[in-house]
Design a protein that fits this description.
Layout: H1 3-23, H2 31-48, E1 64-68, E2 78-80, E3 86-95, E4 100-110, E5 115-122, E6 125-131, E7 138-143, E8 150-151, E9 156-165, E10 176-188, E11 193-196, E12 200-201, E13 205-208, E14 210-216, E15 223-224, E16 231-242, E17 246-248, E18 253-261, E19 270-276, E20 281-287, E21 296-302, E22 313-315, E23 320-327, E24 338-343, E25 351-355, E26 358-361, H3 364-367, E27 372-373, E28 377-378
Parallel strand pairs: 2-13, 15-28
Antiparallel strand pairs: 1-3, 3-9, 4-7, 4-8, 4-10, 5-6, 5-9, 10-11, 10-12, 10-13, 14-16, 16-23, 17-22, 17-25, 18-21, 18-24, 18-25, 19-20, 19-23, 24-27, 24-28, 25-26
Length: 379
Amino acid sequence: MSNIDRSNVLRYCAIQQLQPYVDSIEEGFPVFKKLAVLVAILAVLAVMLPASTAMGAGTRARSLSMERDFRAESVSSLVPAGYMNIPLASFILSAGNENVAVTMLVFRVVGSEHIAKLSIYHAGNLIKEFAVGGSSPQVIKLNFEDGVLSVPAGSFKAITVLGETYPMVSPLDNEVPIEVSLIGAMGTTPSQRVWDFHAVPGPTHRYFGSYPRFTINSATPSGTLTPSSNTLLAVFDITAVGTQSVTFQELDYVTFWITRSISKQTKTHMGFVLRDEYGIRLGDKLLVGIRENEADLAVEIYFGSSFGSFGELVVPAQQTRRIYLYGDTTDLDDLGDAIQVRLDDSSPGNLAWGINGIGPYHRADVIFRGDIVAGALQR
């Protein structure tokens, strides 16, 4: 096969990998703009795959490969505006039977208009940082000097991509997806040039001006249960992560899951009250029609849901407020009866919050990931 034939084949294969990005352009997108995108891709490929490369020198022969690093990477998360060093993705570069000096990496960044800068780290050391910005998505080609990023034969190196976000400009930007993909790698060995071109997407994150982080406060009770109509069940800290205030107003709520172990139920109702650290009543909930031996109870407390309640909680940016959940435990009066509260990640709708009074937003599946479990109380 001639050098020109081989180059054309390589370009064709690479275009097949990148074609989905072109096809994903919104239906009705002007044809000339589609062509402009395709021309831009071909221009990148012209640099990445020079026609003068010899046949033997361009064979990848599995000497360089790339994949997503599922061991320690950031999972899908919420990305706050105006923050630095946010874990966005991790990738693994592997070498075959020769040492590989990586000379180029190609990234595709979705949500790039909210990313000011990306930094690449290996083993905690900064390898490269580069500006992003611009309309989404951006395809960014990074060149590496010899020896900066080397992969020993038969081994691998893991790289982590950290991001720095722009401050929030408009509430319409909340929940915009952010994703960093590695779509190409090139390098040299003592005997040949090697490469790997295919899309390796990182996790998809969501950009927010701020979001609430819930943690168990040390004042949360555990141990012996003393039944009463107003038992303190759990205390949670709420921190506003981001550059704007997190707000809980009348349409916002927190769903508390109550696990009970009860030997003899005499009542079919159970009341709960939510207060802040100043004792101000934020909302309440009366559960009715509780079935005998019903173990899990979903207690959805809306802010401002009780008569005379203040009904609003504002958590200023990067500050922390506290909420206290009380419940009626008079029915748990037999030896061995127990109760425990958790914030459950089974549904995004287990939480609703606002940002500077605008919302609601629902991402309990991320904010409560792994469940946030308070201490158990037992009679």
